[in-house]
Write a structure and sequence with these properties.
Strand content: under 5%
Structural class: mainly alpha
Number of domains: 2
Helix content: over 70%
Shape: rod-shaped
Number of strands: 0
Radius of gyration: 25 Å
Length: 74
């Protein structure tokens, strides 16, 4: 008997669990690739006053007010 056919015979009961595990692994890789984007938004849009959006700064100033905390966040 071919070794691959024999392996598939033993593997068949676990096919859906393995396919689910592979799908979850690929989804996790995709989500991990998205991790740097919020930090990029904060650095580029909030901290950099020349390239940031005014709406974000206004929202943060509304939350924190014109205090030292707002200055630290901005």
């Amino acid at each position: 008997m071919n070794i691959y056919a024999r392996t598939i015979r033993y593997f068949r009961p676990f096919l859906w669990a393995t396919a689910g595990g592979v799908a979850l692994t690929l989804a996790n890789i995709g989500f991990n690739l998205l991790k740097p984007w919020p930090f990029k938004f904060i650095v580029d849009g909030v901290l950099d006053k020349s390239a940031g959006t005014a709406d974000t700064r206004e929202l943060l100033q509304h939350w924190f007010g014109e205090t030292e905390t707002a200055t630290m966040v901005l």
